[in-house]
Amino acid sequence: MTPPLRRIALLGNHLPRHCGIATFTTDLADALTAAAPRLETFVLAMTDAGHQYAYPPRVRFELPVNDARAYTRAADYLNVSGADVVSVQHEYGIFGGTAGADLLALLRGLRMPIVTTLHTILSGPSPAQRAVLLDLAALSDRLIVMSAQGAELLRTGYGIAADDIDIIPHGAPRVPAASASKERLGMAGRSILLTFGLISPDKGIEHVIRAMPAVLERHPDTTYFVLGATHPHVREEHGEAYRLALEAQARELGVDRNVTFFNRFVSSEELAEFLAAADICLTPYLQPDQITSGALAYAIGAGKAVISTPYRYACEMLAEGGGVLVPFANSNSIAREINALLDDDVARERFASRAHARGLGMEWPAVAGEYLRSFTRATESHSDRRRIHAYAADRSRPAPELPDITLAHVQTLSDSTGILQHAHYTVPRYADGYCLDDNARALLLMTRLEDEGTNDVTVVRALATRYLAFVAHSFDTKSGRFRNFMSFARQWTEERGSEDSHSRAIWALGATVGRAAAPGNRSLGADLFHAALPAVAEFTSPRAWAYALLGIAEYLRAFSGESGVEEIRGLLAARLLGLYRRARSKEWPWFEDQLTYCNARLSQALIVSGAQMGNDDMTDAGITSLEWLLSVQRSTRGHFAPIGSNGFFARGTTSASFDQQPVEACTVVAACFEAQRVTGDASWGEHARRAFHWFLGQNDLQLPVYDASTGGCRDGLHADRVNANQGAEATLSFLFSLLDMRVADRAAAVTQPVPERAFAFAE
After folding, report:
1. Which residues pair with residue 225 across a beta bridge?
2. Do residues 131 and 124 touch, judged by C-beta distance below 8 A?
3. For burial by CB atoms within 10 Å, which of 276, 292, 404, 623 has the most?
4. Domain boundaries in the chain?
5. How many other C-beta atoms lie within 10 A of the C-beta of residue 343?
């Protein structure tokens, strides 16, 4: 017999954070407490970067979204908390890592049953999103969805067994009497239309406003309330542009006296008052695949007539006369249906009555009871052996020696112009000024950090914009080439930069197009990328070819199939492969007669390009050359020992042992992880880890090159000491490698095999 539930932990967002998941988690916790007063309910709240909230006592643990170690600390906390069940409120965007993959590390560490509520189920997920959801399903004892369509999509689209899914409606509050609410709002005798929730451009509110002139022509005593603040993520990215555009639209149409905006996050009590007063609720949303809507659930629970566009959740909830569906973005249809319902009180009450009947099972007391039954089923079916196995096999936890990613020294080296090249110890060296090489590296790093969901996005985006501005300023439109070196007085010291610096800029710009979230950055990046790309066709530097190929690969993430870009990729990749074939021998399978700097980028470029182009010969050449490079950069004691820059390594001679540069370890880490991604061979990850450990002291001097006290990296290893200066190239090289290590750990979490019991693929 299963013992009674005593303690439930909820993982999600929580008020006063302003978002739909926070409201849901708060309401669910309240409802569980009311339904089972002896049941202790507490919350672990995800906290977005740069924000602090005055959480109530029930929030016992805060998880900074981009702190990978916080997830493992949270797992440890839950395991000693005595929680009988963990209830996860899942939305991709509220957890750190690619597609929120950091959550998996936490769940693999738990020993109690997991019940996951899926607030978003995508019919066309990215590979990472699909993998995360499948792993999430495997780790969960029960999955909760809010609609039959959601359950069907899990079954047919993801192959998840129906027996593992519970359909529990979105909860809704009880509302007061309509007439009293209208009087309290000062709206007695008027018709009220209502759209509520966090405001964003995909809500389609402009189409209701556009319908208002036709509505007011027949029903002049009508007010349309738009209730809610702009979504915090929209406000951070675009400010109040959407709301201001809506207000301007209402003024231009002459309906501003009949359209009222409540630009704030309203309390549950205020929302209940507006719901009670509303005659018609509207959800004119523009995303067809939306699988749930708290606003629509609340409207139905309140027993309101509803007009909605036909997104997935609305189609199901308003079926069989439960409401009125109108085409997407069609103000004429919206106006027609509003007028029809305001014309016909009987028809409107009929819709409201049907909504009320359906809404009885959606009130929070009923929903809390369903959740408690799901929790009980989870404890009955839970297998300690399965969870312990997953915990022991967890590869998503960062290795204990991995430092946190900190941008402190990058910020020290940066000013309003860009990142400075060199430092006296940790102090920026103004006399050496700036270079395109380092600003392109810094732009590439910031773009990747934002894409991977690490660090404070506000800081990362601000730095990325600064470095992009430097790259843009360095481009000479007349020659189609970049300049490289700039003095601290902001004077260019050359007319044209090196081929390598030009192609590094292309790499960073390609990544900006392929990964950046800011439309302005992507647009400027694309313009510069296209303006600079033709010049590389005439380049003779193999490393410039390699950097350009890596940039093209990044660009094609966004615009796969762009023929002009693919043509240049084919040209450069063929040149690099031809160079390898002409220079290689059995004893020296390399591109040139010597190993110099950034060697692994040549192999990496062939591996990446060969995989994208489906050219096995190219990929094989990249793999073979990288294997050999690793063999000559390994000490007799087994640690990574890069080719020294004080002489390099010519064919038929002895390799220079010093000075060893951080950029060499960085390039090997990146190339090895690309080899692992393409071949699926996990041994490449071990090679990458060995090269990364060079930074941490596993090197010829057994001294750390990374400086944990500053977040910077020392400039290299001499024969007798570490170079104590912490310049841009060294610091950025370390941060690239650290990011690669963390991304690899997250990828392992996403792709780790899971027990067969958790889900069954459809035949």
Report:
1. 194, 260
2. no
3. 292
4. 7-171+366-396, 178-362, 409-583, 594-751
5. 11
Q: Is residue 726 a contact partner of residue 713, using CB atoms and an 8 Å limit?
A: yes
- Structure confidence by residue, pLDDT tens digits, 97-123: 888 988 998 999 999 999 999 999 999
Identify the CATH class of 7-171+366-396.
alpha beta
Residue 178 and residue 276 in contact, taking contact as beta carbons nearer than 8 Å: yes
Give me 172's structure tokens.
């809704």
Q: CA-to-CA distance for 522 and 229, rounded, in angstroms?
A: 28
pLDDT tens track for 609-648: 999 999 999 999 999 999 999 999 999 889 999 999 999 9
| Cβ(410)–Cβ(444) below 8 Å | no
CB–CB of 662/728 below 8 Å? no
Whole-number Å distance between alpha carbons of 309 and 307:
7
Give start and end residues of each alpha helix (H) in 382-496. 384-392, 408-413, 436-452, 457-474
Q: Which two tokens stand for residue 169?
A: 């409606």
Under the phi-then-psi rule, with left for phi > 0, alpha for psi from -120 to 50, and beta for the rest, what region is 170?
A: beta
* DSSP structural state of residue 346: H
**Residue 425 CA to chain centroid, in angstroms?**
35
Please give the Cα distance from 55 to 52 (Å, whole number): 9
Rounded CA gap, 281 and 275, in Å?
Answer: 8
The torsion angles phi and psi of 223, rounded to 5 degrees, stand at: -125, 135
The CATH number of the structural domain formed by 594-751 is 1.50.10.10
**Third-level CATH fold of 178-362:** Rossmann fold (3.40.50)
Q: CA 112 to CA 532: how far, in whole Å?
A: 56
Give me the architecture of the 409-583 domain, per CATH.
Alpha/alpha barrel (1.50)
Whole-prediction pTM: 0.68
